[in-house]
Amino acid sequence: MNILLGFAPYIAFFLFMQAVSIDVGLWAALIVAVLIADRNWRRSGSLKVLEAGTVLVFATLVIFTAAEHWKWTVMAVRLAVDAGLLAIVIVSLAIGRPFTLQYARERVAEQYWHTPFFLSINRRITWAWAGAFAALVTAHAVAVFVPVVPWWLDNRGSSTSGTRCRPPLRLRLPAAPGPADRVTDRRRTAAVTWLRPSMPWAIDEIGPASCLWVAHPHAPIKA
Questions:
Q1: pLDDT value at 171 more than 50
Q2: Phi, psi at 214, each rounded to 5°
Q3: pLDDT confidence tier of residue 135, bands split at 50, 70 and 90
Q4: Is 192 exposed, middle or buried (0-12, 13-18, 19+ CB in 10 A)?
Q5: Dihedral, CA atoms, 156, 162, 168, 171, nearest 10 degrees?
Q6: What pLDDT is stored for residue 202 in this prediction?
Q7: What are the counts of helices (DSSP H) followed by strands (DSSP E) for the chain?
Q8: Buried b (16+ CB within 10 A) or exposed e, 86-114
Q9: Residue 159 has pLDDT above 80, yes or no
Q10: Which pLDDT score is estimated for 220?
Q11: Reduced to 3 DSSP states, what percent helix, strand and coil does the chain have, rounded to the nearest 5?
């Protein structure tokens, strides 16, 4: 079975999360994962590490969400899903059965299954997957747990005009939804945070913000 089919539940989760809701995305992913696992069990009488782990991940998230009436944010649920996927990959390496191994054996003659070269290649490929998933987990964790980012950590080379991002524009957001007040004195400094989608009213007022930072409503400003 193609390895991409093993990731079908995650694709279903993303599509239904975007099109409907996070809860529906989790249920859709669980249903797809169970169907794939059942199909493989009927055909071969065994389950792949990725399939079994995926069923466990989404079943856990569905049960937790329903039991706790948990309200996920997009970044938080993506962090949970990616962390679960990373855990599957790490566990497969820890038990000496890289998750790619079972898929590779479907395309390689049995006489090569236990050769050192074949096993080494699959360990390296699985570690590459682990690195990619770890990068995703790190990025989502930063988005969830680090609300304030210094302007000098911004991607200076990216902007819509192709120029470098400037230091923070001095904008102060009101405590309640309303027009944003511009601070004209650029010599002042302020505690800054990313302009997040949780403030659509501010986005409407300010517009695109590829290099835009905004000050907390109650952040002190020093001259």
A1: no
A2: -135, 155
A3: very high
A4: buried
A5: -150
A6: 39
A7: 8, 4
A8: bebbbebbeeebbbbbbbbeeeeeeeeee
A9: no
A10: 44
A11: 60, 5, 35
| Both structure tokens of 50 | 């990725």
Hunting for tokens 């200076």 — which residue is that? 156
- Enter the tokens of residue 183: 């601070």
pTM: 0.63
pLDDT given at position 137? 94
Residue at 94: amino acid letter:
A
What does the DSSP assignment read for 85-120? HHHHHHHHHHTT--HHHHHHTTTS-GGGTT-HHHHH
Q: Which long-range contacts (CB under 8 A, 24 or more apart) does 22-28 make?
A: 22/72, 22/74, 22/77, 23/65, 25/77, 26/58, 26/61, 26/62, 26/65, 26/77, 27/62
User: What mean pLDDT, rounded, does the chain reach?
Assistant: 75
Reading the block at residue 113, the tokens are 């299954």
Give the number of other CB atoms < 10 A from CB of residue 56. Answer: 14
What does the pLDDT average to over 75-88? 95
* 172 closest CA partner among 221, 216, 206: 216
Q: How many CB atoms lie under 10 A from the CB of residue 202?
A: 21
Which residues, 6 or more positions from 196, have their beta carbon under 8 angstroms from its beta carbon?
A: none
Residues 19, 147, 25: CA angle, nearest 5 degrees: 20
CA–CA gap between residue 77 and residue 61 (Å, rounded): 9
Whether 28 has a pLDDT exceeding 60, the answer reads yes
